[in-house]
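Late entry, written up from scratch paper. The run itself happened at the end of the previous shift, but nothing got recorded in the book at the time, so transcribing now.
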Amino acid sequence: MTGSAPDIILETRDVSRHFGSQAAWFGEKRVVRAVDGVSLAVRRGETLAVVGESGCGKSTLARLLVRLIRPTAGEVLYEGRDIGGLSEREMRGLRRDLQFVFQDPFSSLNPRMTVGTLVEEPLRVHGMGSRAERRRRVDALLQRVGLRPEFADRYPHEFSGGQRQRIGIARALASGPKVVIGDEPVSALDVSIQAQVINLLEDLKDEFKLTLILIAHDLAVIRHMSDRVAVMYLGEIVELAETEELFARPLHPYTQALLRAIPVPTPHRRAAAAGVKGDVPSPLAPPAGCRFHTRCPLATALCSATKPDFADAGGGRFVACHYWQQAAAAAPAPHAEAHRTAAAQRRFALYRDRSEQQERLRTAAAAGPTTT
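Output as recorded:
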């Protein structure tokens, strides 16, 4: 799964990140296993989503992919090159290709810098263009993400959450990256604004030929815009599949529980099966064997004693479960997925039409004073 094939742009090989922790009593040192032995290959041009409960390690994995933090063990490869061994100078040059969009669009923007300076900063750091060329690039990027060029002289606090996230996206695109990683890029936004930003990301992906990696917990968003989904649980990937295949036939009991937890708008169509039971174990002391066995309805003595392999389930699917065949056979049929998907498509199409209309109006207004 992790061979350096020509279509693989970013890859992890058995990568782990452990954080030291010191207990209050007697200075005992303990280890938080945030990411533990993850191997994942990202195809060039795809949108890969990483999902899981809060605290499962998906945001830590995202930061490892761009070396915002270093791995405790394992390798992260960009276009076949291990970025862990690069110097800070070499890594600074590589960051032109690898960009990050943070969850909180306000805290990720320096409040003392104008929007224009923020968006221009990657261009200046990488020595791209003259001052006039950089300013034209900033104006074009702001206009492309749905903001007026004259907003470049304003400060982040003068904008709404959705506008600030657009600024963050423009900043990420400034250097012409090949890979953009979004760490829950729409979770802090209102639902209607989420749809606009999602549509914007999809359009920009096609226009700039990007590879997108999305960290998220909203499975409805993931289904709308991702090509493949990796499901994380307690620092490990437990299932990887094409998006529609995963939603139609989840193989891992944890994935099934996540899908059952999706709200259903029609009360009489709600699934009778309950979601996953129990609390997530502490990453300070993850269970032996399969880490999900303490909450799994199919768990046996084998699950508590032996860690399952991340095995090929056929058709490009991978799953880490001793009893995934039985889990797949016992899984309930997806509840009203066709109905909900059609409704979601209509809603997103409506938001897209409105966004495009607003963007045309902004473009015309911005171009008006300069038209001869």
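Residues 287 and 294 are 8 Å apart (CA to CA).
(Scratch paper discarded after transcription.)
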